[in-house]
Amino acid sequence: MLGKGLLGIYLTVLVLLPIAALLAKSSTGGLNAFWREISNPEAVAAIKLTLIASVIVVVINAVFGTIIAWVLVRDEFPGKSVVNALIDLPFALPTIVAGVVLLALYGKDSPLGIDVAFTRAAVGLALLFVTLPFVVRSVQPVLLELDLAMEEAAASLGASPATVLRRIVLPTLAPAIISGVALSFARAVGEFGSLVLITGNLPFKTEAGSVYIFGQIQNENLAAAAAVSVVLLFAALLVLALLTFFLRRRSRHVL
Amino acid sequence: MSSSDAGALSIPGPAGAARVSDRGSAGAPPAAAGARASRRRQLGARVIALGYLALLLLAPVAMIFYRTFEHGISPVINAATTPSATHAFWLSLEIVAIAVPLNTAFGIGMALLLERGRFWGKSILGVMIDLPFAISPVVVGLSLVLVYGKTGWLGDWLAEQGISVIFSVPGMVIATAVVSLPFVVRETMPVLRELGVDAEQAAETLGASPWQTFWRITLPGIRWGVVYGVVLTTARALGEFGAVSIVSGRIEEQTQTLPLFVQDRFENFDSTGAYTAAVVLALLALATLLAMNLLTRLTRRKTEA
Amino acid sequence: MAIEVDHVSKRFGDFVALENVSITVGDGALTALLGPSGSGKSTLLRIIAGLERPDSGEVVIGGEDVTQAPARTRGVGFVFQHYAPFKHMTVHDNVAFGLSVRKRPKDEIRGRVEELLGLVRLDGLAGRYPSQLSGGQLQRMALARALAVQPQVLLLDEPFGALDAQVRAELREWLRRLHEEIHVTTIFVTHDQEEAMEVAEQIVVMNRGRIEQAGAPRELYESPSNEFVMSFIGPVNRLGDAFVRPHDIQILAESDGTGTEALIERVVHLGFEVRVELKLHDGRELWAQVTREVANELELREGQILSVRLPAPRVFAS
Fold it and tell me: What is the pLDDT of residues B46-97, one digit of tens each?
């Protein structure tokens, strides 16, 4: 009993009370005030940039994440286990360090001659970096379990490798790819640390939603910050809820 | 009731997902007439995958090590031993030392509740626990300001008590605890399920009190899951930037953690200072990966034995 | 210590696990709870142990009402179906657990553990971990662990269920001898009627949360009180409402007019025993169990028509 009380207090102090305060703050002025805050042109630009960049990033993740998972499961090459372990580096690396790391190679002193600092490409690059593990790590276990015999059976029935991929492999991997994509999206929408240094935070150009919120907090405009926060939060939760719904329906289908 | 429905909207995040390791390839592809074509495709995929990883991940990380030590070791040592650098380092450790044990105790308790309890609203509770994974760190920081800040819900009351939360260490600890809250819960729940209740009931029939049962049977049974969760929590806590940035006020040598120090040095064109601190954090991240890998191997060997 | 279970009922959601169950187990007795899966036998055992609470009714152990007492204060030893070993402890520490939570002196614990490991024939394996033991060894470790605290009552849930046939047979025999040696009141759960007959002094037959009959093995076999007990304990032929044991059917060498005419449809040799499948003149089918000698003597073969004598069939009021 005492234990449950302590758990409840901890969760309230850390999560429930703050979320309630956020929702309350965003709705103090009513729907009109909320709408005014999120239709501020700078806010619109920031939210648009975040959503569009997130969509592009998760599409790229879906493709490359699946290829990487494939190579890590089906291919054999020296140093594979090291590469496999390093996939999680973006999860372990502090986001601010991710920004520094990307600037070291793709900033103004780039040894490759590629300078993306303070451009929209930088937003995409940073988001790609921090969301890299999601698709790889959700596809990998499914691929490990995938029965090679199923592919061989299809091939023995005369299916070309492309057909096997399209008709057998991808449908099996689809739920894992989709859940990796949804998790990447939720993360990308809220990402902050890795964007701060590399994007320059130029309003209407490279200022993402989270950075806009940060700026509003610094200007003590908490109502604007709360309104945009709620928009981003709901975008992330909506995608995750759709994922849950999709996975449930699918699992019923399979059973 | 199965507890897997506790996370109706579960967000596996890095924790659950990261467990996969190299169990090796699933066997050679069929030795058919198209073996050479298949070999070519495999090589193509390998080049694409490794090329992508090299450009996005490996080269940038290698680059900062190179940049840091470009001019030898002494500027690095100088940068690492400035008062603000060492203060930031110790402050980060202090916050971790408070937030991680709190989250560990909470995580074990909550995992027990979600896994063993039967009560209404369990799935909603599961969603609450996962929420920090779905929320931007900036939004976490803002929400905390709205409760514990000067103009926040509890602002006046806290001021009367003479407690300062925002712009001081307690707020930073809370922010850190929030963003790393789900890890221990999510890592402990599956091992708890696997452990089952038989051993605990056996201990009970042998006369052990609930407390004795917990310390001598349950905790040893789930220890590797907990440790794994603690490693992830620690990594996240050490690196947290956005939420802490908002609630800390970022005052040099007072509320500046190591990640905040990186930003501060970078924006003040002290690239050596920024790189040095970044390399320290990157090394800690690599140590985390190593620990995760060892733990996965260790537990896999145990379950296969 | 004697155990009394008095009008106990237990539901899990909509499922009625036990309905108004009462049993009495005498001090020092060896009792089997026998029934098919879902009959409530394990639930009853767990209620006696204190691992489940009954919805209504009482549990009395040694004259004391323990219905509301937690498992740890009841002084019962419980052996779990899958042994529930403490995997992170050695065999020694597993067996010592009950004594160590009672904070007994180290020397006493060591002596007692050694003695018990001898009793269950695990001497020399004290330093092993459960993962290094076979199923039978785990079973005996679990038993030693339960006995270490000198329980008033020993409860075993499907003690031999997970073992292969040969180990099972050995352990049954060994459990009976152990009981003779230490004489602790013992109840075990099983779905195997042969096991119950062989080991127990008293059998409680359960079905669908109710007790069908309780008594000595021979009593149950010879005078079952209902259809369920009759068909659960030993093989039966069903002839309409009546029941006949296959070994009670007599095959006659010569028709003397007292028997019924029957056609042999099949003869199956099962070692010593021979199973003869018969069709009676009125079309009813049944089988008889005879010894190999009888089968040879009568030269039984398929297609043969002969005379059989049926015992007085048992009929139960439905």
Answer: 999 999 999 999 999 999 999 999 989 999 999 999 999 999 999 999 999 9
Which chain C residues have a beta carbon less than 8 Å from that of B204? 50-51, 70-72
For domain A51-207, give the CATH number. Answer: 1.10.3720.10
Domain boundaries, chain A: 51-207
Q: Which residues numbered 34-73 in B keep a CB inside 8 Å of some CB on A?
A: 34, 37-38, 41-42, 45-46, 48-50, 52-53, 56-61, 63-64, 67
Nearest to A235 by CA among A52, A40, A30: A52
pTM for the whole thing?
Answer: 0.85
B134 and A140 within 8 Å at the Cβ level: the answer is no
Please choose, from the candidates A249, A232, A255, A247, the residue with its C-alpha nearest in 3D space to the C-alpha of residue A179. A247
Average pLDDT over residues A231-253: 85
CA B92 – CA B102 distance, rounded (Å): 16
**Each residue's pLDDT tens digit, C57-98:** 999 999 999 999 999 999 899 999 999 999 999 999 999 999
Asked if A17's CB is within 8 angstroms of B235's CB, the reply is no
The kind and range of the H/E element at B261 are: helix B258-267
Tokens, residue A214? 């940060």
Which helix H or strand E contains B155, and what residues bound it? helix B155-161
Sheet-wide strand order for C242-244: C237-239, C242-244, C314-315
How many helices, marked H, and strands, marked E, lie in chain B?
Answer: 16, 0
C-beta of residue A104 within 8 angstroms of C-beta of residue A135: no
